[in-house]
Amino acid sequence: MKKLGLMMLAVFIGMSTFAQKDELKAAEKALKSGDAVTAKTAVDKAEGLIASADAKKYKAKFYFLKAKTYYDLAKKNPANSKESYQTAANAFQDLIAYEKEAGKPKYSKEAEPMLNQLIGDVSTKSVQDYQNKDYKSAKEGMYQTYLLSKKDTTFLEYAANAAFLDKDYDTALKHFRTLKDIGYSGIATTYSATNVENGQKENFGSKTQMDLMIKTKQYKDPQVNVSKSKKASIIKNIALILADNGKPEEALAAIDEARKQDPKDMDMLLTQGNIFLKLGKKDEFANVMKQAIAEDPKNPVLYFNVGVINQEQGKAEEAKANYKKAIELDPDYSDAYLNLGSVILEKDKTLVEEMNNNLSNFKKYDAIKAKQSELYKEVIPHYEKAFALKKAKNGKEDIELTRTLMSLYENVGMDDKYKEMKAIWDANRE
To answer: What secondary structure, in 3-state letters, does 194-250 show?
Structure first.
């Protein structure tokens, strides 16, 4: 009985092997005649038999025919090519991995031109998807390009960026971390020269090609440009994703690592500051901003940011000094005027409290009221400047600022100005 069972198993395996062989022959024949649909039917049937141990000698051929079948299907129907390209790419990868392990690259060599064409097609499609802002398809195609050609690490960077734009932060983080682990720098050298005839700058594939064009006298002004390393920016992206995913401490650790590579990287410094701000570590944020100011003393935004923290911490004089510095560097900085006015106006709280405590002491009340009026007159020019700048920028009045100015004008007896703001206020409320 046992022998009968073994005999039946051997017969079944033999039948499976013959069936697979027949299906592969059918697929091969269909492909030669250009019938990819029939080839797909045969390949799909053969796939169910490929797992048998006796079918090993046909595996490489199966992967090759499957790749070619689905690649042909993709070319014949571009509108629905995504899944076919994916299946073809996976089959090519299976073929290469299998023959590498077996040490017999028979079909891999035959598949190489087709694989290169596939890489070209997938990469071109993914770039088009990216340009059309179809980031979901772009991230998949760019990552597939990278998997098919690991030397094209730029496509892993593109895939990471596309995933980030697609808000697929887990995938983006995985890709950015891979880039970091493989030491990707993104440094690229470009060779260019100016076409003498039309005056346009043109790029060349190599220095040799550029030098040859210069010798023809048809080109001039050769240039060799080496791009900046992207190592620090990759770590910065890792940090930003970690921070957004509620892992700020891990993000800060990544930033520390990145700053060791480029201590003067302003973007990295500001990213670190933003993470401190998210964590509520305002002292650390202020310190980072001061470091940034030391590196970039002509940047008004940095002074403004420090001013905001000063104001939140009750350091009014420091806040005013920083807002004034921001305005000095950028006279059109509307928010700096607005915040300068608001920090000056904070004294009003004390004056109102004093007036409320002296309602029956008319003389003292009037004296405090006079101080309040002078305070408002000091504030008004800053708010007026902010109002004018915001209107010029946005093409309309800021309604909240309109209400504030209306109140200030009323309190200091500037009736004409009050009526002007009141008209704007009423018009915006209709």
So the answer is: EECCCCCEEEECCHHHHHHHHHCCCEEEEEEEECCCCHHHHHHHHHHHHHHCCCHHH
Instruction: Report the alpha-carbon distance of residue 276 to residue 287 in Å, rounded.
Output: 10
322 and 310 in contact (C-beta within 8 Å)? Answer: yes
Q: How far apart are CA 160 and CA 234, in angstroms?
A: 10
Residue 79 — pLDDT band, cuts 50, 70, 90? Answer: low
* DSSP secondary structure letter of residue 398: -
Which tens digits make up the pLDDT trace of 92-114?
A: 888 888 888 878 778 888 888 88
Q: Could you tell me which of 276, 337, 267, 327 has the C-alpha nearest to residue 300? A: 327
Of the candidates 129, 148, 128, the one whose C-alpha atom is nearest the C-alpha of residue 137 is 129
Q: Mind listing the pLDDT tens digit for each residue in 371-393? A: 999 999 999 999 999 999 999 99
d(CA 65, CA 15): 21
Give strand pairing partners of 190: 225
Tokens found for residue 101: 């392990």
Task: Compute the distance between CA of residue 378 and CA of residue 29 in angstroms, rounded to an integer.
Answer: 90
CA angle 243, 249, 252 (to 5 degrees): 75
Interior CA angle at 19 toward 28 and 100, to 5°?
60
Strand order in the sheet with 219-226: 201-204, 189-195, 219-226
d(CA 171, CA 246): 16
- 138-174 residues labelled b (16+ CB within 10 A) or e (exposed): bbbbbbbbbbbbeebbbbbbbbbbbbbebebbebbbb
For the record, the structure tokens of 167 come out as 């808000």
* Token digits of residue 176: 């950015």
Cα(first)–Cα(last) distance of the chain, in Å?
96
The span from the CA of 63 to the CA of 46, in Å, is 10
2: which 2 tokens? 């046992």
Q: What is the pTM of this model?
A: 0.59
pLDDT tens, residue by residue, 186-205: 888 888 999 998 988 988 88
β-pair partners for 193: 202
